[in-house]
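#struct-pred

JT: dropping the chains for the assembly here, can someone run the whole complex?
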Amino acid sequence: MAERVIPLIDQRLAALGATLPALPIAANGLLADSLGRPLRDLRISVTDRCNFRCSYCMPKEVFDKDHQYLPHASLLSFEEITRLARQFLAHGVRKIRLTGGEPLLRKNLEILVEQLAALRTMDGTPPELTLTTNGSLLARKAQALKAAGLQRVTVSLDGLDDAIFRRMNDVDFPVADVLEGIAAARAAGLGPIKVNMVVKRGTNDDQILPMARHFRGSGVVLRFIEYMDVGATNGWRMDEVMPSAEVRARIATELPLLQLDPSAPGETAERWGYADGSGEIGLISSVTQAFCGDCNRARLSTEGRLYLCLFAGNGYDLRALLRGGAGDAELASAVGHIWQGRGDRYSQLRGTLAAGPGGAPKRRVEMSYIGG
Ligand code: SAM
Ligand code: SF4
Ligand code: SF4
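RK: done, full complex below.
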């Protein structure tokens, strides 16, 4: 029996674009990669489209009217996403984040949310279900998302100054509408809300203090993200990165801060609380302080490729397996093998390796394709 099944598995795994051992791996939550890191966090990109053109992510000159987005048939269907997510949960994933592109552009997203919310982790509890959005459609969709089972949202907002923000999103989108989206999310109970601000030196670093002042005491956790060299189109330069230490120092000149304990292993943000107890901020130092050591995140692209690192050059084609008729055990086994072989730690190696296994790949995937 085994002899007749294994070649079939081999053939399907070949479609992944990788040679994987045929010996099946059962999903028992004990999976670890080659550096001993478990699999806990799954980020699912539900669309490669976006209505913004943030220069650090989808610069207008590259993502112009001639840019070819994925055709609808290439996208994983909600059923396919849910089926794959079930295998990841069986391997120990506890948190699912929907992202993109702009996830709220995917039609009927609340149906997917409902399907994912009905899944269970290894412990029999519902997965933590969150979404990262630019906030532009949030005011309209917050209630329906909450009703479908979404627990929290993270909203990206790079400044409070309307002119600066309009320039950064490069589609002239106003700050007020994003703030309205945040208010709607709060009213719908999608909290605690996080707000992500990518800091680009010379572009929006003068927004650090106004943002801190605005969100302090509001219950919203403002997180400052170092501008990353992700993808191959944003023209990244180190001198435009403002290290988190500098962001913190700038805030502390006016609002004293105390370091807080991390909330969970593998957490990307360093937590700092306002000394007067009026809330906390997060610092995501993806460039100056690598956090690969406990990185437990996997990323599923819009068309069903599994990426093991934000800076990976290639993904594993799980859609080919799915559409080739693989059963759940085969899918889970493939995920297991792929994760076991993972050795990615790009941020740790940044600057020391030009290319090669675990180092900077020659061709990097875009953030808008696999999500943040
Ligand atoms: N469109 C949604 C949004 O903007 O929230 C979700 C997808 S977006 C790719 C996810 C996150 O990645 C956002 O918070 C965005 O600011 C961040 N991001 C994109 N490009 C980045 C870069 N080069 N460096 C740091 N963060 C980046
Ligand atoms: Fe769109 Fe988000 Fe990328 Fe900005 S960061 S271009 S909103 S996907
Ligand atoms: Fe994880 Fe890759 Fe980022 Fe390191 S560089 S923290 S391995 S996603």
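JT: nice. The first strand starts at residue 41 and ends at 45. The two ends are 43 Å apart (CA to CA).
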